Every structure is written in C-alpha cells, then in structure tokens.
Amino acid sequence: MGDKNISIGLFGFGCVGQGLYDVLNHSEGLKANISKICVKDKNKKRSIDASYFTYDKEEILKSNNLNVIVELIDNSEEAFSIVKAAMNNGVSVVTANKKMLAEHFRELYHLQEKNNVALIYEGSAGGSIPIIRNLEEYYDNELLSSVKGILNGTCNYILTRMELEKRDYTDVLEDAKKAGFAETDPWLDVAGFDTKFKTLLLTIHAFGIVLNPDDIFNTGIQNISYDDILYAKQRGLRIKMLAVSHKVGDKYRVYAIPHFVNAESELYNVNYEYNAVEVEGAYSCKQTFVGKGAGSHPTGNAVLSDISALRYDYKYGYNKLKKALHGKTEIEEGRKQIEYDFSIKLYIRYNKQEQLKDLEIITIEEEYKSAHTNYIIANVNFKSLFNIYNKRDNKLFICAIE
Q1: Top-tier CATH class for 340-402
Q2: pTM (predicted TM-score)
Q3: Which of 60, 193, 201, 221 is 20 to 30 A distant from 166 in Cα terms?
C-alpha cells in the first residue's frame, strides 16, 4: 500500500473502536480513514455522525473500496465469521479478539496462507505493549526459555486496589465495572480465561507451539479475599495474575494462575491497569516490557499500529511455527509438547476440607486453620488441577509460589 490512503471498514464501536477512531484522528503522517462502521444497536447514541454507521455487515464485506477490515466486536464466533469472510475476499484484517484467535488459530493461519493476506493482532495481547511483533522480529532466531507476565488489566487493577485500599474483592470489582475496567459479566477476565487466550498466542509466537484453549489450565482471582492479600503483604509479596509459558528440558509448561511475586521481581511494581511481559532468552537474557494493558486509547493505538504496518504489506513471518512444521502443511497438536505431570508449589485457601479432594496433594509444607480462614502450602501434581478446571462452583483460591 505504501503511502496510499488506507480505507478502513470497522466492525464494532465500543471501547476499543472509539479509541481507534480518536487516535486515528490525532495521528500525523498516516493517510487512513474509517469509511464505514458496522454496529448492532440501532438505538444506541453515538459520539460521531450517523452517516458513518451501517447495521448490515455485508455492506462492508462486499465493498470493493476497502484496503483493511478491522474487527473489534465482543462475540468471538461472529468475529470469526467476519474475519474469515474478509480474508476469503482477499482483504487483510486487523483484530484484537484474543478469544477468537485462540479458538480458531489453525484455520486462521491457513486462511492467511491460502488467500495471501495478512491477519495481524498486536492489540490482542498486552494492550499497548508491542509484544507479538517483538517476538516475531526481534526474537525470531533467539532461543527463548520463558515468556511470562501480567496480561489482564482488569485483574491487576482489582488486585492493586484490594492491597492499597485494604478492601475486599466484591467491592473493588463493582468499582472496576463502574470505571470501565471490568465487563458486566467479568468471568472471562477474573477467572483467568482472558490471560489464558493471550498466553496461547504468545506461546505460538515465542515457541511455535499451537495449543487449544482447553490444553492450558487457568484459574483466576474470582475466589480471592482480603485474607490472601494480607498473607502476601505480611511476607513482603504481592499477588499477580500471571501468564506462564516456559521451557523445561525438551517440554513446555504453559498455564495462567495467580502468583506470589517478591519485591525483586520486575513485575512487583506493575500496578492498576498496567501490563508487563518478561521475555528470557539464551543470549538476550531477561527483558521486561511494561505498558497500559487496558483502556480505549492504549489498545486503539496498538490497532492503529497494525493498520500502519499494512501500508508496507507487513505480515507475521511465523518463523518459529514454520520451523516446527518442517515443511508440512498441517499444524501438529501442540499438546504433545506440553508437560502436565509435574509438582507445583501452591498456596490454597479453602472453606471446607472436602474442597481439596479433587487435588493430588503430594506433600503439605504448612497448614493453617481458624474460624475465619483455612489454607495450606502444598506441593500438588499439576495435572490434578484440571479436576477443578472451569467450574464456577469451585471455591478454592489458588496461588503459585515460585
């Protein structure tokens, strides 16, 4: 596209869509305009002129005047159908929908190859942090050993306010909803699913391994109480919701779990809606990227950066993935490369002893019981954590100890 004017068809005008509109109108040097915006709700008041909007997705998908489709809607299945149609029409796509990317990555990868188009998604993992492009370009030949970090602004915002304001989870969650840092139904964020989807994407770009979402164990802060924050504080620690993807021998351990983080860690002082990603390699050693992980303008700016990259026909090279493919066309099940049968040290707070029955506890190092709270510090077989996976009635709060 070079210096040509980029004409954009946009799906969705929520938080990120409006953020993109704002940053695009204040950007210098980028010749780009939003031609049409497809939205659902005909009755919702909009901040810009009604002539921008359409309620018919085909008006955008069948247009011959668009260079780029930008997909920023909530519904992951609907998003997939839009992205698939656009790529099959030979149009490159920018998206920030990590759930859609995580659930349909294999097909999306093949659609890029088949139609010779780009699908880029920097805004899907880490908000304003350019982590995917760095993994793709700066670290493309680096022997990485670990990628981990804080990837969910909602969780980090809640954890920070609980600690600094000495408040309980339910109160802070309500505040986070009012401030726009948490969804009306915050389950995907607070239960660690959002972090898990982002972990899956970073694992592809860091190690060339493609997993299915259910291959990765996640639990979040949905059962946390101020007692857990206090436990950490008394020991000079903080609780952070972390994405972890690291190499151990010839296998990989990949999960999304809250962790106790000490003051020596770069992640300790990453607070509120900020995100951070720590990348460790054989030659580059440890590097940490920090930036705003939530909010309209930071994510909108990441999306704009992707649109700008398309001027130069930018595409992800997927070098690590292509090396793993060894010339084959079908992407292997990455699960074969993941280690599940290992011991992990955990802080587990529970109400009743029977809540622990599904876990394979190897040894207990510390046990505390009172009328108010119960917890154990235990070495647990990681594989057994899947027994409590994705159960909304699970009342355990689990936090990893490094």
Answers
A1: alpha beta
A2: 0.97
A3: 193
